[in-house]
Amino acid sequence: MLALLWAVLGAVFDAVMFLVAVSLAITVPGAIVWSISESADPRDALRVRRFLNRALDLAEFAGLVLLTWVYERTLGRPVGAYLRRSRRKTAQHLAWAKRPFGPDADRLFPVGRHVRAALRAWHQAAPLAAAAYLAKVFLLLQILLNLGRLVDAATRWASHVWAASAKALVPWWAPGGGLWGPTRQVAVGTAQPPVDVEIVATLRVSGEAIWSKATQYLPALAAPEERSNEATIAVSGLVLLLALILAFRAVRKILGRRPGPVTQGGGHKRSPGFIDRFPRGWWLRSLLSLRPGAASRVRPVAVLVDCVARVGAARRYYQTDSPPRRVLDTPRVDLSEVESVVWSAWKIRHRPMRGTQRREYRKHAAHVVGAIRQLETRQDLKGDTGQVFEDMTRLLVKIADRYAEGSTLSLLDPEDLDGIDPVVNREWVRLIVLGVVMAGAAIAAGLSDLSAAGSTQIVAVVGAVAWALLYRDRLMPGDVLDVLRGQSRK
Question: What is the mean pLDDT of residues 66-80?
């Protein structure tokens, strides 16, 4: 099996390299001819660049046709079957959710196109997300169980690199490389160091040079009359440092722009201007999150549809068995999952936002959760149980529609929130409990006879279990900073 897999991967790699080689063989001469034509014939009187544009369009069309042909004969059938399965599962899911409402299904549970599209996307992404979830859990579990070994290996590597960087050669342009001063003295016959040692050595000598200059000239600013030359050098150095920082920022902004043609409206051809860039550390947040891929954005719609189905089942039970045979058989629907969806709706549906916008979203979520809890409490009022199920269905359907549309700041209308007290979410309680549990685990591990690696693993396992029990999937590791600042996203 593994031999067959490697053979298939090798064939795919060879095909990709062949396509890359053909693309380079066509693109490089064309780029050279294009540059020569721009210099010799700016107005394109010989129509060389026009010919190259047409040849490029023809090559793009031929490549698209080739890829379509290969796709239809390799992945076309399984992908098509998978998409048909997802559409069939979506129809079955909606039919199952609407069945308890009987003839009132279209009146109480109208399914909008946004909800249908989000539910279809959920059924498309759920199997793939489950596989990615298992792979991610396995990877994180291996890291957790081997955390002591990883820390020891990283410590040994850092110690070795730091010790070797003290005697390693540095590039010619770095301090001590010979460009601006004497060459750094090293042992005779020293070989070229590895890349990691060379990078650390360069950063080390640069830091040492900056520190030596700072300790030499910056004290002169305290007495500029007595050490005027050194004070002038210090001020000039600070000005140059500020200019260097501004230059780095300018270069970062230029390199951060997405290259390519621009449309007439000012947006990018492949990425319109209204699309936000990825936030800092998005890849680390995605790795640490146990909600992989696009399934996390459409999962709330599936959760809300399932809650609507439960409400319909409770409504049908109440209508067909009224009064109930036993007091304990009185139907009651728990909406705690809906609360979790509302608290994190704006964070999952959208990318991270500025602090002012976060306050508005949290405030609206608090009012919506208050309306949900008030509606849930009405189930226990005598004489209102039958009507509350219909009101609950309309409210959940509205929240699902607004979330699927992306209107997370108007999950409910203002008239739905009249007289509703916002709910206060105290994340500090969970955070304090988590800290106490981890501190207790660390103290217990320290008092035991376990080794340092074993103690580290015990604390990590206890912390992970406590995190899972307290937060489940409602809080990602990156949200702890928001909790500490009193800006909980929940």
Answer: 85
106 Cβ contact list (under 8 Å, min separation 6): none
DSSP state of 173: T
How far, in Å, CA of 314 to CA of 140, rounded? 40
Phi, psi of 354 (to 5 degrees): -75, 165
Q: Which residue has the tokens 């000005």?
A: 239
Angle of helix 385-405 versus helix 336-343 axis, rounded to 10: 30
Three-state SS annotation for 357-371: HHHHHHHHHHHHHHH
Return the DSSP state at 221.
Answer: G
The Cα 202–Cα 196 span in angstroms is 10
What is the secondary structure of 263-288 as a DSSP string?
Answer: -TTSSBSSS-TTSPPPPTTHHHHHHH
- Give me the torsion for CA of 115, 117, 119, 124, rounded to 10°: -170
The SS3 call for residue 152 is helix
Identify how many contiguous H helices and E strands the chain contains and give both numbers.
Answer: 17, 0
Q: State mean pLDDT over 187-215.
A: 80
Greatest mean pLDDT among 73-77, 307-311, 327-331: 307-311
Handedness of CA 221, 225, 230, 233 (dihedral sign): positive
Residue-wise pLDDT tens digits, 10-56: 877 787 788 778 777 878 888 888 888 888 888 888 888 888 888 88
Among the listed residues 287, 403, 266, the one whose alpha carbon sits nearest the alpha carbon of residue 340: 403
Tell me the Ramachandran region of residue 266: left when phi exceeds 0, alpha when psi lies from -120 to 50, beta otherwise: left
3-state helix, strand, coil in the chain (%, to 5): 75, 0, 25
Q: Are 342 and 399 in contact (CB under 8 A)?
A: yes
Residues in CB range of 83: below 8 A, 6 or more apart: 124
- pLDDT tens string 378-394: 887 766 677 889 999 99
CB atoms within 10 A of CB 431: 17
3-state DSSP assignment of residue 262: strand
CA–CA dist 200, 187 (Å, integer): 18
* Phi, psi (degrees; rounded to nearest 5) at 262: -110, 140
Using CA atoms, how far residue 380 sits from 267, 385, 417, in Å, is 54, 7, 21
Helices (H), 146-227: 147-165, 195-217
**126: amino acid identity, one letter:** A
The per-residue pLDDT for range 52-71, each reduced to its tens digit, is 888 888 888 888 898 888 88
Query: Which residue in 289, 282, 202, 334 sits closest to 468, CA to CA?
Result: 289
Q: What Å distances lie between residue 229 and 219, 221, 237, 243, CA to CA? A: 12, 10, 12, 21
